[in-house]
């Protein structure tokens, strides 16, 4: 008997389940909150004149009409009251009733209407997370003080991507990163990890034992080739829930100096066109799943051009642009499209790059965390975190400083 | 006034006879080509060098919105992907050979008879089997002298490994597959005046040939002397030792160093 969780079975004659997403209309101020929530931050608007924190997001301070600015806030809160919604005309919520809501007094000041974890009752302390709902919009969720995500809470599962029992495709399992991701997903309880094996075909070396374990299936996959992508997908038994795209082509080189156009083109073919091929082929498969997700590993070089890795950075920037478009396409299907940014990796491709570098295992843990915590955007390691912070603050200055 | 040698003549009858024999099946046509697909392995060089791109295909339309009544694909590959032809200009030794690129090779060179040398047993016993001059001389003692202006085809049965890891046979110390050494190549080129060397493996040279005292002798000596290479052939086991005629015409790529191609052999039903 298999020790792995069994694959889900379905009634073959049952009518396909139509999936809905939470209603998506929001004010511009609310979208600004969502953009920050996607980065995993808990922020509120604070008045620059009177210092009052406010929620929900608005255009001016409700106290003094002063100008508002976004600020990170303490996440603590006290539950004031609770209610359970049993009837709704909204298609999405009708599918997920009953639904618990409550009011909390935020330590930051305002009282907010929040989604309420099933264990919380009035008087309890709670931590508040801004999480993205199935429509991609920020929502406040009150969790028990431990902040732990309880995957058995159906309401909470709507805000994250469960891994246990799921089928996951890893696009480049031959690389150090890919191997680590396969291992992490397998350990996180995925029913099947499909390991895409890029050419050239060769016997597995030491350290790749994970690929031969039960619950891991190797399939030849060259994401630079449409036919290879289709063939690889045809070899996956049962539905596909999650795609992790770890494929990349890291090569040093400039534009006019020390340029290698073959490598540059290859970087685009793998990172940018590869993403398109993979997204086009797997998007419809993920769209039919209750918790579909696509995670893309992107270099923080995507944020601004790199003189030392010009082609790579350009390809990663193109990849980011395509990923943003793909995210918009998948919004109506409720498929989460996530980005995990990393700086230089402790692998064979970054031998000439000085530390700090990110270990492949750490990237893998971040990917698992992004899924289970529902983080749309994660930066793993000091380099990526620093790059993102500087880029968010002053993109033009960052691009200049990066290549001094 | 200059005199020119009279041109050799043939009659329409000779060609008509061949066509009739093709039609009747008296001449059998054997396809020596592997399927050109994205999963067909390409040669892997040490990582400091640029690499060979495999065959790739992207559909433009297939009776759909992008072309309701037609099906076609964009394809991309290296010149040395799949069953392919090596022109003299492929190698540095052949850089000054006149007409050394595929677009300039005289078309009469696309059709030549072949001698098939069977090394299947030796290659099965030793995946690094090296064809030497002594081996070829021994082969001639058994099978008769190799005639001039022939393709030399090495039947190693390597094509039967296609689809398995043992085709490229990449290990931690590089690829392992049979091929000739420099002595054998000089013998075939200088003393037997071969047209070229055709092999079932991914390169005319042995897998470990970059480590030979004279590295990559097949490429170096063949192309330095204006001879050609054919790689990734299959079905060589269907050819007689002598009597087959190879048709191998590469694409006319401007300044090309080689080309994927369809290689066929015409085989008489009674070679002797």
Summarize the SSE layout with pairings.
The complex is a heterodimer of chains A (404) and B (272).
Chain A: H1 28-37, E1 43-47, E2 53-54, E3 68-72, E4 76-85, H2 91-95, E5 99-106, E6 111-116, E7 125-132, E8 138-143, H3 154-157, E9 167-170, H4 176-187, E10 192-197, E11 216-220, H5 226-234, E12 242-245, H6 261-287, E13 293-299, H7 310-331, E14 336-342, H8 360-373, E15 377-380, H9 382-393, H10 395-402
Helix pairs in contact in A: 4-8, 5-6, 6-7, 9-10
Chain B: H1 12-24, E1 27-31, E2 56-64, E3 67-76, E4 84-86, E5 111-118, H2 120-125, E6 130-131, H3 133-143, E7 151-155, E8 170-171, E9 174-175, E10 179-180, H4 182-191, E11 196-199, H5 217-224, E12 228-231, E13 242-248, E14 258-260, E15 263-268
Parallel strand pairs in B: 5-7, 6-10, 7-11, 11-12
Antiparallel strand pairs in B: 1-15, 2-3, 4-12, 4-14, 5-13, 8-9, 13-15
Keywords:
heterodimer, A: 404 residues, alpha/beta, Rossmann fold, 2 domains, seven-stranded parallel β-sheet, five-stranded mixed beta barrel, 10 helices, 30% helix, globular, B: 272 residues, Glucose Oxidase, domain 1, nine-stranded mixed β-sheet, two-stranded antiparallel sheet, 15 strands
